[in-house]
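Example 3.2
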Amino acid sequence: MRRSVSIFSVILAVALPALAASIQTAKPEQTGFSSERLGRIHETVQRHMDAHDISGAVTLVARNGKVAHFEAHGLADIDARKPMSKDSLFWIMSMTKPIVGTSVLMLMEEGKLRLTDPVSRFIPEFKGIKVAVIEDRPAGPFGPPPAPAPGTPPFFYTVPATREITIQDLLTHVSGLNSGGPASNAEVAKIALKSGESLSDYIPRLATTPLDFQPGTRWQYSATAAWDTMERVIEVITSEPFDRFARERIFDPLGMKDTSFRPSPEQLARIATQYKGADGTLTKVENKPIWLNSPTYLSGGGGLMSSAEDYLQFGQMLANRGELNGKRLLGPKTVELMSSVFVPDTLPGRAKGRGFGLSVQVISDHIAANTPISNGSFGWDGAYGTHFWVDPKEKIVGLFMIQASAPNRSMTPDFEYAVMQALIDPADEHN
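Structure, written as tokens:
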């Protein structure tokens, strides 16, 4: 065992200097981790590779602003036998949302919007939005009413929203805007995004569709609609496309050189192949959403590509309460606001112990949530299995980057446990 730990330390010492100079590296023991125990991260990933959940992964763990673990596992492409690399790129899908959320909060700090502002202040089509009510048809004299034919929408009618949806509603998934309900799904399908369209073309049409519930009455995930709308709000305020705003205000200051809505040919070659695991095999997935890598449509709900190293810069900025390497994006109190519980776990739709803040999940009770990460930790996932969290108490940033269709969601808690069991000098021992 001593020999394996020694080999691991040598590999770590050789590999970590490849990380950008903006984040320092350190031996695990210097950051309060055990080198031997951090080796269990690879064992965890290997179990999921052996189970054919994934072909490979990149994992990264930092504490106190120093990287203690950074490892590539398995293959980025099975057919080509291409190894996963630390600079492999991933469609991060919904991990785009916290970047949009940060952009909104930057504009809030500048006095250009308020969380309580109605969305219609910036996109007038949202004024007077309706709410869909699924019709419960009573049985008639000749038996029950006919059910909708397979593949057709349910019977529903609309009522006025009790209030307008706000910026805060969009950031916290309580707006009801295309949140997976059958009525809104059917109506949104009628106004589907067309090739060549932009946010300015599509979002006003989206405003004509009914909400799934009265704003603020439940938490229900809006995969793309709320966030694409939020991104359009940013464009209206700044009079520039969101990718330019994000590049100038977030990516360039943080040194996120590989994060983009539209990868270059060189970057496309570095994107890990997406696979779907089923029945003990991995199958390559070719179909992608129309907006992914679109030349015209930037999805705030899930359009970005990034790397583990790049996203660490963003996560570390949040862990540092809004600043990285002398570049301040947010004030400390704004990061505190972002990671506060706006939606408690008592609101219908939320899981126990897991509240929701402004674009991020917040652990409000780690026992109820069945997670080893500290209360107050915050972060989010992506539809293809990527995951990050910031633990303010332990000053940890954790990143798990994979590319899987319909991923096995047990990988996220498995990674969190693998990281936290390696922590041998927790913060509470110094209190």
